[in-house]
């Protein structure tokens, strides 16, 4: 047992990253996904735009979706400049099955195939569960969980048939922790992480794990705009500078919280200063298959240095609880639910008191 415990310990602590670093430098992945048809939902926001430009550097054919707010016109221009094979914008409400069906049909009709799906669209309300309108809660679940499920369900048969494909589900650290007043978001992101893991296990059982691989990711702490730091870093790599507006929790949404909770959310995003291109380039690296031997089906925090994590692949292979949803129990009860030595009859066969 001691030998096994030692084997499963981290060999060293992965470095923490907030911006692009040499292992995921855009220059290393230029043209690495040439002509790969890549669907990115929620492309109008900062994370979506960072993903679009990162996959443009890799030479992908981009299908960029939005719901109400179209991406800025300059986004197509930049993506083509950075190396995208093709760029189209498609309006799609991922919360509706019909919209997802239309998106997949349009993509396959236009390109004849799809190679990479990035479920990035998200919704996050802020308020007490007991006061939230049920339709608002359901909408969050629909955007954050049903939409990714719809698109995965629609594209997985295609990926299986062509024996290649990649799914990148943009989750959140909120999926692994309990955040009050963000119940719908936390719940749906936790479900998304486990959806990814379960679907990958099915592919592995069918012997297709190395051909169709999927991941869930925490994209880092990103405001809905790029900080000056991230702009200057990416412009150094790609020669382009642009700026969009910042979005914070609105004063109205914070005012709806109980007084004792408001102070925790007023400046909650001030610590978010990660570059959206950190997430973008980690996703590009994973889409090329760089980490599929040890990370497929798992939940990865892009703040950890990908090179450092992959260098400890044997540790990950030896511990299925790493980079996934799991829990711990007193007494060492296994996450599978069966205690060491099995169940004893006296523990489940006792009569009810009074009988």
Automatic annotation (TrEMBL):
Q: PROSITE patterns attached here?
A: ADH_SHORT (PS00061)
Q: Known Pfam families for this protein?
A: adh_short
Q: Which GO terms describe its molecular function?
A: oxidoreductase activity
InterPro entries from the UniProt entry: NAD(P)-bd_dom_sf, Sc_DH/Rdtase_CS, SDR_fam
Task: Give the UniProt entry's GO cellular component terms.
Answer: membrane
Would the keyword NADP turn up in this protein's UniProt record?
yes
Q: Which UniProt keywords apply?
A: NADP, Oxidoreductase
Q: Which family does it belong to?
A: Belongs to the short-chain dehydrogenases/reductases (SDR) family.
**Purpose:** Putative oxidoreductase.
Which PANTHER family is this protein grouped with?
Answer: DEHYDROGENASE/REDUCTASE SDR FAMILY MEMBER 7B (PTHR44196), DEHYDROGENASE_REDUCTASE SDR FAMILY MEMBER 7B (PTHR44196:SF1)
Q: What is this protein called?
A: NAD(P)-binding protein
- The record lists the organism as Triangularia setosa
Organism lineage reads as: Eukaryota, Fungi, Dikarya, Ascomycota, Pezizomycotina
């Amino acid at each position: 047992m001691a030998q096994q415990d030692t084997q499963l310990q981290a060999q060293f602590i992965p470095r923490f990253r907030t911006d692009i670093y040499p292992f995921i430098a855009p220059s290393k992945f230029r043209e690495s996904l040439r002509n790969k048809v890549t669907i990115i939902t929620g492309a109008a926001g900062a994370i979506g735009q960072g993903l679009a430009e990162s996959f443009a550097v890799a030479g992908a054919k981009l299908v960029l979706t939005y719901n109400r707010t179209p991406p800025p016109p300059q986004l197509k221009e930049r993506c083509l400049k950075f190396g995208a094979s093709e760029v189209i914008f498609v309006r799609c409400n991922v919360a509706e099955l019909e919209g997802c069906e239309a998106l997949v049909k349009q993509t396959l009709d236009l390109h004849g195939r799809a190679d990479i799906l990035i479920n990035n669209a998200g919704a996050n309300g802020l308020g007490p569960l007991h006061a939230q309108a049920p339709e608002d809660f359901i909408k969050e679940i629909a955007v954050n969980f049903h939409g990714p499920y719809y698109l995965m369900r629609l594209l997985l048969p295609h990926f299986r048939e062509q024996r290649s494909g990649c799914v990148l589900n943009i989750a959140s650290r909120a999926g692994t922790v309990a955040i009050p007043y963000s119940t719908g978001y936390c719940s749906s992101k936790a479900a998304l992480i486990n959806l990814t893991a379960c679907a990958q296990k099915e592919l592995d059982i069918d012997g297709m794990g190395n051909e169709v691989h999927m991941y869930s990711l925490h994209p880092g702490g990103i405001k809905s705009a790029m900080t000056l730091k991230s702009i200057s870093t990416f412009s150094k790599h790609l020669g382009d500078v642009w700026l969009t507006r910042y979005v914070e929790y609105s004063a109205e949404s914070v005012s709806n919280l109980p007084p004792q909770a408001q102070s925790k959310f007023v400046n909650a995003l001030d610590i978010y200063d990660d570059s959206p291109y950190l997430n973008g380039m980690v996703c590009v690296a994973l889409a090329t298959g760089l980490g599929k031997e040890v990370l497929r089906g798992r939940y990865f925090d892009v703040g950890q240095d990908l090179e450092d994590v992959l260098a400890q692949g044997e540790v990950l292979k030896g511990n299925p609880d790493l980079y996934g949803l799991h829990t711990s129990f007193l007494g060492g009860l296994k996450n599978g639910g069966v205690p060491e030595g099995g169940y004893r009859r006296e523990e489940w066969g006792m009569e009810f008191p009074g009988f």
